[in-house]
């Protein structure tokens, strides 16, 4: 059958795989964002600590995704667990690096002014520093999301959820009638999801970043 007929016949399964793929990436990005911002907040005041955080998360990113998932299978088994752990770890670097850069780039005079009106350190962090560092942090989140969209496909190797299952089934059945359709459907689905997520981040940026800061 041609590609269009394949989509029509398999649309329910493709929609289910797309939902699982998007859900896995979204949930892992939420966790990675929280962990990454905490790491940045703890380390950005110190050069050596910030460099250590960036180096550590960079090292994680150098591990091939298939190897990472393969190493996790004996520890946590197949399915969702290795997918969540690997995606969360891979998503850390852009967030940690951008959050550190953003926090270090806050104008010191604004921090001094906040001190002058009696703000505590926690209040300065949440009301002054993090809001001003939000644009680069959001950029890091966008970059991480695009990376994880592709890496999540490898999770099918460990029986993880998502469109990677469609791609792996097609590769495993190369030469069959629908092999190419399966690979193409999974690949295009991931591309479409990545574009939709990126568009959502653009909207979030417009809603959460004041025009003056965006400029």
TrEMBL record:
Keyword Iron: no
InterPro entries, alphabetized: ABC_transp_perm/SBD (IPR051204), MetI-like (IPR000515), MetI-like_sf (IPR035906)
Keyword Transmembrane: yes
Membrane topology type: Multi-pass membrane protein
Pfam families attached to this UniProt entry: BPD_transp_1
Keywords, alphabetical: Membrane, Transmembrane, Transmembrane helix, Transport
CDD domains named among the record's database cross-references: TM_PBP2
Domain of life: Bacteria
Chief subcellular location: membrane
Signal peptide: none
Domain ABC transmembrane type-1: from-to ranges: 18-201
Spans through the membrane: 24-44, 65-93, 183-204
Subcellular location as annotated: Cell membrane; Membrane
Family: Belongs to the binding-protein-dependent transport system permease family.
PANTHER family per the UniProt record, alphabetical: GLYCINE BETAINE/L-PROLINE TRANSPORT SYSTEM PERMEASE PROTEIN PROW, OSMOPROTECTANT IMPORT PERMEASE PROTEIN OSMW
The name this protein goes by in its record: ABC transporter permease
Source organism of this protein record: Streptomyces kunmingensis
Top-level taxonomy: Bacteria, Bacillati, Actinomycetota, Actinomycetes, Kitasatosporales
